[in-house]
């Protein structure tokens, strides 16, 4: 029996490389046929064959209110009726900048664009323009979008700069990027000792959500802040995923560490394409038209996208929103751990705000190297059992999971029940 899903995937592969418009969607890591969707409502999704799922990807974070939230949809309708785009300023952008500044005060000035990739790329250019330095530091396992200078892996030695981590990236660009180990405070201190005054910026996911979930050690983040300040390097928190996800004020509010610049995406668009970068006013003033650093976008601050984002940002400020979100996520993790224990499966899990990580490992990993040691085969079996049971998890052992405000107790209970069977079948 062939399904509509399979048909669509086969046809898509003829016209779209790999059949998908972003690689993880192709299910290469877990194997099998990706699910093609046609509808979402609240915590639920329906695929093109009519099968129903509970969604724990939530478009990789943006759908924090659940799918097709009526107020977000109404805001989009209203904005669309007044034209889809002007390529000129609107009051909505000021409203958005005001709200971002209120929720994340370190973003004294902010500029909108259309994706997380654009936000990080522009933040780095701004930091380089501000400092007059070329070198940047990132961390292994963090993802900051697909711009050339960020698709870089560590070189062979500690002090060697990076090598391209993707075809098509010139070595001459990768060589300006140094990739260090996450949570390795000593290594960070050594590098700053050697060349701190040549570093334009350090970009980091303050809570990592792109090698599954990894939490920062407090001492690591504090040392990072101290070293950047001492050496005049710009500290960029890439909160494209963690912004409005781990807490209302992002990871910087949760950990009490103030970066010089912040990048946002995902939730600030409420499911439409919006990115943002901002930070200290003295840094942001180097941007054109005020200063020499060029950055632009035809659809930047698009009124329809910004309306969806604004409405989302207003609704997540409801009293108790994050307490409930974190409680539901914790309930899910607790249930999964108990279910694994019943079947004697080596398993561990953690959560922060509405974000979670599950690992086939006896403890929660703290670095990329530790993450690589988790049992990928066990995850892949688990993933497919859950998918069959109508539970949609990220299709890779190296992706985090997301809970939305629409996830009910019944959703959580149904998920745990499915997991009991999935663990038992391992
Ligand atoms: C998703 C993500 C990006 C890239 O955002 P896009 O909108 O996919 O370009 C950058 N940084 C982090 C931390 C992300 O999670």
From TrEMBL:
Question: Which family does this protein fall into?
Answer: Belongs to the class-III pyridoxal-phosphate-dependent aminotransferase family. HemL subfamily.
Q: Where in the cell is it found?
A: Cytoplasm
The lineage's top-level taxon is: Bacteria
Residue ranges that the Swiss-Prot or TrEMBL entry lists as coiled coil: none
GO molecular function terms attached to this record: glutamate-1-semialdehyde 2,1-aminomutase activity
Carries keyword Isomerase? Answer: yes
The biological pathway it contributes to is: Porphyrin-containing compound metabolism; protoporphyrin-IX biosynthesis; 5-aminolevulinate from L-glutamyl-tRNA(Glu): step 2/2
- Which InterPro entries has this protein been placed in? 4pyrrol_synth_GluAld_NH2Trfase, Aminotrans_3, Aminotrans_3_PPA_site, PyrdxlP-dep_Trfase, PyrdxlP-dep_Trfase_major, PyrdxlP-dep_Trfase_small
Organism field: Methylophilus aquaticus
Name the chain's protein.
Glutamate-1-semialdehyde 2,1-aminomutase
């Amino acid at each position: 029996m062939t399904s509509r899903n399979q048909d669509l995937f086969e046809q898509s592969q003829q016209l779209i490389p790999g059949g998908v418009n972003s690689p993880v969607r192709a299910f290469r890591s877990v194997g099998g046929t990706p699910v093609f969707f046609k509808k979402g409502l609240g915590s639920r999704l329906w695929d093109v064959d009519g099968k129903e799922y509970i969604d724990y990807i939530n478009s990789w974070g943006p759908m924090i209110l659940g799918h097709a939230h009526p107020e977000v949809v109404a805001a989009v309708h209203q904005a669309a009726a007044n034209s889809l785009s002007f390529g000129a300023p609107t009051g909505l952008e000021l409203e958005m900048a005001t709200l971002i500044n209120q929720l994340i005060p370190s973003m004294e000035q902010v500029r909108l664009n259309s994706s997380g990739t654009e936000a990080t790329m522009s933040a780095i250019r701004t930091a380089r323009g501000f400092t007059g330095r070329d070198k940047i530091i990132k961390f292994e396992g963090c993802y900051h979008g697909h711009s050339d200078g960020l698709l870089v892996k560590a070189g062979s030695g500690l002090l060697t700069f990076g090598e391209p981590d993707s075809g098509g990236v010139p070595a001459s660009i990768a060589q300006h990027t140094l990739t260090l180990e996450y949570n390795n405070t000593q290594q960070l201190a050594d590098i700053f000792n050697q060349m701190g005054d040549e570093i334009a910026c350090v970009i980091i996911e303050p809570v990592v959500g792109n090698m599954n979930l990894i939490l920062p050690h407090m001492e690591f983040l504090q040392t990072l802040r101290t070293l950047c300040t001492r050496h005049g390097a710009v500290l960029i928190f890439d909160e494209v995923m963690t912004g409005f996800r781990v807490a209302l004020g992002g990871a910087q509010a949760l950990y009490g560490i103030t970066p010089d610049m912040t990048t946002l995406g995902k939730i600030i668009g409420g499911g439409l394409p919006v990115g943002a970068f901002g930070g200290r006013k003295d840094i942001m003033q180097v941007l054109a038209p005020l200063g020499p650093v060029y950055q632009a976008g035809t659809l930047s601050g698009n009124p329809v996208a910004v309306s969806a984002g604004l409405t989302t940002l207003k609704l997540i400020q409801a009293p108790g929103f994050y307490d409930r979100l974190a409680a539901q996520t914790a309930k899910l993790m607790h249930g999964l751990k108990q279910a694994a224990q019943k079947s004697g499966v080596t398993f561990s899990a953690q959560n922060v705000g509405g974000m979670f990580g599950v690992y086939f490992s006896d403890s929660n990993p703290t670095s990329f190297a530790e993450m690589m040691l988790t049992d990928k085969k066990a995850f892949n079996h688990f993933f497919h059992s859950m998918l069959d049971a109508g539970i949609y998890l990220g299709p890779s052992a190296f992706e985090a999971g997301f809970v939305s405000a629409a996830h009910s107790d019944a959703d959580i209970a149904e998920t745990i029940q499915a997991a009991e069977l999935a663990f038992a079948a391992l």
